[in-house]
Amino acid sequence: MSKLWGGRFTKKTDQLVEEYTASIEFDKELAQEDIQGSLAHVTMLGKQGILPAEDVEAIQDGLHRVLQRIKRGEIEFAIADEDIHMNIEKALIDDIGAVGGKLHTGRSRNDQVATDMHLYLRKRVVEFVGLLQKLQEALVGQARENLDTIVPGYTHLQRAQPILFAHHLMAYVSMFGRDIERLQDSYKRINTLPLGAGALAGTTFPIDRHFVAEQLGFERVYENSLDAVSDRDFIVEFLSHASLVMMHLSRLSEELILWSSTEFRFVELDDAFCTGSSIMPQKKNPDVPELVRGKTGRVYGDLIGLLTVLKSLPLAYNKDMQEDKEGMFDTVRTMQGALQLFAPMIATMKVNKQQMRQAVNQDFSNATDIADFLVGKGLPFRQAHEVIGKTVLYCIENNKYLLDLTLDEFKQFSPLFDDRIYQVLQPEQVVNARNVYGGTATIQVEAAIGRAEQQLAQTAGWVEEYLEKSK
Ligand code: ARG
Description:
Layout: H1 15-21, H2 24-27, H3 31-47, H4 53-71, H5 84-96, H6 109-145, E1 150-155, E2 158-164, H7 165-190, E3 192-193, H8 209-216, E4 220-221, H9 225-230, H10 233-259, E5 267-268, H11 287-310, H12 324-347, E6 350-351, H13 353-361, H14 367-376, H15 381-397, H16 407-413, H17 421-424, H18 427-432, H19 442-469
Parallel strand pairs: 3-4
Antiparallel strand pairs: 1-2, 5-6
Helix pairs in contact: 3-4, 3-6, 3-8, 4-5, 6-7, 6-12, 6-19, 7-10, 7-19, 10-11, 10-12, 11-12, 14-15
The structure holds arginine.
């Protein structure tokens, strides 16, 4: 059969042009959404009396058969048929005959492809919220296990103040919580129906867009037909939210890589998530976090790629917009892979509590607390800072830590010291002294874990509800 749009043409399409312009190699991923949209469209055409009932039924039956055949891998897509929309229409016409050609009444590929993308992405967004929730669950689980684990907290990657390891992990729970919120919020914009916009201006047929929206579970329809077919904001938004998710994963990756090094030995990733070296038998490499860190770059690339495609496009549809798909699919695959691995990798990670504790014992991360002690005795903080700076310098020169100093040594630096400082300097005391909302004191972290657990349950409920709605 010749091209579905071949009427106006007198020459065959150049073979290279056909290959260059075709999108079937990648948009075949939208087959199910394409048929889902077509079913709603043709049902509406019937309800509006635009097509007779027997045609509608034939087309519906045909579309169901085509979908089954695609699922079974029985349909061979052809580059000559350009994209998934034309390939499916062709398969339908092959199946039910010329009546299949009535499906495209009152519709354009421009509003059709946009609808497919909305249907596709809203499912992915719900799945991603589910995957992020699982990762949060793993982090919260480890946090519960590590409520008694003290570890150096860092700024500038220099030891700063001791914190609970649980508190450190809960910081990531907060980050992924914001990612979840962003994805949930984007759902309402994704869940807007473009179909009915036609090629750009609407259609001459008396269609009912709201009926189509209702059937497909869209909460609203695009207000403006030009905008409906030109809008790819929802994909940019997704790629941008995905970039933040990957950035968070990449920061966590960097820490896992550092913590698993011999220099730190804070954690050990399970063998199942590491690989070896082909030459150095002793090696156990943290390949998963390394690759996630690396793949973050390609997700940023997908975002910048699409922003750049869109930046000068005149209204309405332009073929450039076909470039919206590969980056989106790539980001979906990349982020799915990362999140699927991260949750079990975190859950099975061994935490070397002793090593962390030893690190805390061998640093000056309790220095702020003796400064605060002197402040409690009436010394202005600036002066206290100076005194403790000198005390630390003395320790470094004499190869000691603060807890090794005798009271006489302390008193050389300030007469305000008394033997209560030995209590103040204990890491447990240092941690628990930070008893402010959001701080590292054990009760605060326990409360934060409790709140996170409630939130986890809420998110799980949202996922369950929206998995159904986004089908
Ligand atoms: N394959 C096209 C895309 O992905 C579908 C829309 C084509 N529309 C057109 N007028 N050529 O953007």
